[in-house]
Each structure stands twice: as structure tokens, then as C-alpha cells.
Amino acid sequence: MRNWILFLGGMGVGARTMYLLDPARGRKRRAVMRDRARRRMRKTTRYLDLSKRDLEQRVMGAVARGRTRIRPQQVDEEVLHERIRSKLGRYVSHPHAIRIETSQQEYPGRVTLRGPVLKGEASAAVRAVFRVPGVKEVDDRLVVHEKGDIPALQGGVQRPGERPDFFQESWAPATRLLAGAAGAASLFLPGPVFRIFGITFLARAGTNRPVHELLGFGPRKPLKIHKTMNVAVPVEQVFTFWSDFRNFPRFMTDVYEVRVSDDGLRSYWKVAGPAGAPLSFQSYITDYESNRLLAWRSASGSVIPNSGRVRFSGTPEGTCVDLELSYLPPGGVLAETAARLFGTDPKSRLDESLAQLKTLLERGPSDRQLRRLR
Asked: What's the whole-number average pLDDT of the chain?
């Protein structure tokens, strides 16, 4: 197993070296990698500072809660009212329908709840209010409804209640820092279980994405790319070239072939997938405004679900092209991150393709592009 890891690691280093030392594009790729490394260093510094402050505030909050439990103090009526209102907002889909009555002068710590509430939320709301610091007794006068049959209970969004950070989709900075530290420490423990645990926690903390998105199964959020490019060519020429998808293989090395239907609304693509394996999918036009806008979406069941929108606007220098693209990477976020290390992720390849498009429109096809078209 160790030999296989060393072998795969050596292949990865070799591939990365060839990618960076490519005679034609290596210099640009090294410059892009250097800029990305600087950007990541700045983001890491900000993240560590944010995590430090978050951790300090959590410790201060835990100390304050412990002090309150040891030495209970009477809470100001307005403060108690706002605490209860905040707590109800986490458990009740219509918190403003509930009236909160407190009287700290006559009955310190006693809270009366009145108003309509859905049946599935009533008991959870009462228990949540009872746990609020400063509350000693809850007088439940809520009117329970089976469904939202009155205006006060219509609409609204179901609330999940309070969940520990580790069970939330997005982790707080301090949680990510602690999880990452625990994952790194697990890598030094004996046994494959600890290593799997460590890698999972490191990936979860580093990306702040749920595990099912990391591995590429279950419901996932699409990755989004936004690019803007200026081309010293009239907008009519740029739009005509872009709207004919058969031109894409001329500047996108990962696009092998594009066929367009007779009505021009559907197109059939053959592109390079992982390890260069060919993948096919179908897309269709969803919005079209001549010389202004072009939008598309892949057909359902596509191997790489994607959609995008391109806006074209004329400028004194030529044309401004504004591209918005969203897609679901095969293999999940982990595969996307690994591809990014070798410069083969869609974002890196799109940067190169747009640069080739700009050169093609402004200067005409290069010798390399002409050889590819033959």
C-alpha cells in the first residue's frame, strides 16, 4: 500500500511539473499559480484571525453562562423579552404570532405565552423558552392549530431548531479550526480508520462543504464561475462567433466536437472528461437576444449538469463579454480540488480558453489552431 501511495504521488508530481514547464504556456501558468498562492496566503491569514476571535467569543460566552448558573441574577424585563423572541425564531415558523408577557417586578422569571401556533411546533417552543437564561416558569396559553387555517399562521418557513455546529451545513470559523486540528492529529494515529477520519475532517474543515458534496452524491450546490473579458472587436462579430457553437473546438481544447440542430436551439457536445475520457451531453438555448444575450442549460440527465449566461455589450474599445457559468463537477468537490492542483479544473481551463478566444478574434487563428482544424 505504501509503495502504491509513493508511486501515485510521484506520478502526480511529474504531471504537475510537466504542466508548469510546458514550453508554450508554462510561464503563464507559473505566474497564475504564484498569484493564487499569494491570494490563498491572504485568505488563510484572515481566516485564522477570524477563527481566533470566534473562539475567544465562544469561550467568553461559555464562562458567562456558567457564571449565570452558579449565581442566578434577575434579568431586565426588556432583555428577557428579546432573549425569548430570539429563541422562538429558531423553533417557530410564525414567531410574531406569539405574544410574550413578562412581569419581573411581580413574578420574576415567569413567562406567559399567548397566541396561535402550529401543533408540530407548540411543545418544542415551550421547552425552548424554558431553557432561556432568566426563565423559571412558563405559563403555556398557546392556541394550537392543526394547520395554517388562520392568516397569522399562513406562509412562513419551517425552522430546524438549534443544532450543534457539527450537524450544520456551514461551520463557524472556530468549529472549522478545531475540526481541522482534530483531523490533522488523527493522521498520526495508527490504523486506516483514523486516517480516513482525519482526511474527511480536514477536507470538511478546509472546504466548509457537507460530506455528500465532497464525495459527489446526494443533493449538491453547483459551483459558479464569473468571468469578464474585453475584446477589441465589434460586438456583432463577437456575438456571431460565440452563438455558433461549432466554433468552440477552435479555442477550447477540451471540446472535441459540437453539432447543432436544424432549428439552432439544441446542440450536442463531445468534451474531454476525467483523464481525457470523452463525455457527451446535450444542451438547449433558454434565452437569446441578438448581440446582447445568450443563455443555455444542459438537458436533464447530463453527465455534467451545467447552465450559463453570456452578456455582450459594446464599448469604445470593442466588446465586453460577461460570462456566468454554473456546473456540478463529477466526483464532487474533492475531485474538483484535486483537478485544480493540476490546473485541469474547468475554471483554469476556461481562463486559458477565453485567452485563446481573445487572440483568435483579435489576431486570427494561430498555426496551432490551424493544425488542429485540419
From this structure: 82
- Calculate mean pLDDT across residues 303-315: 90
Question: Could you tell me which CATH class the domain 77-153 is placed in?
Answer: alpha beta
CATH number for the domain formed by residue range(s) 223-373: 3.30.530.20
- Dihedral pair phi/psi, residue 228, rounded to 5°: -130, 135
Mean pLDDT of the 333-338 span: 55
Range 181-200 burial, b when 16+ CB lie within 10 A, else e: eebeebeeeeeeeeeebbeb
pLDDT score of 20 more than 90:
no
Q: What are phi and psi of 218, to 5 degrees?
A: 75, -175
| CA–CA–CA angle 102, 105, 110 (5° rounding) | 40
CB burial of 138-157 (b: ≥16 within 10 Å; e: otherwise) equals bebebeebeeeeeebbeebe
Q: For 301, left (φ over 0), alpha (ψ -120 to 50), or beta?
A: left
C-alpha cell at position 315: 464599448
Backbone angles phi, psi at 331, to 5 degrees: 90, -5
Cα angle for residues 92, 95, 98 (degrees, 5° grid): 115
228-285 pLDDT, tens digit each:
999 999 999 999 999 999 999 988 888 889 999 988 889 999 987 766 678 888 999 9
Quote the pTM value.
Answer: 0.54
Average pLDDT over residues 328-334: 62
For residue 292, what pLDDT is reported?
A: 94
User: Residue 150 has which C-alpha cell?
Assistant: 388562520
Helix axes 173-186, 26-70, angle to 10 degrees: 110
Q: What torsion do the CA atoms of 115, 119, 121, 125 make, to the nearest 10 degrees?
A: 50
Q: Where are the domains of the chain?
A: 2-70, 77-153, 165-208, 223-373
Q: Is 266 exposed, middle or buried (0-12, 13-18, 19+ CB in 10 A)?
A: middle
**Alpha-carbon distance 242 to 365, whole Å?**
15
- CA distances 252 to 141, 180, 272, 343, 346, Å, are 67, 38, 10, 15, 11
Question: One fold for both 77-153 and 223-373?
Answer: no
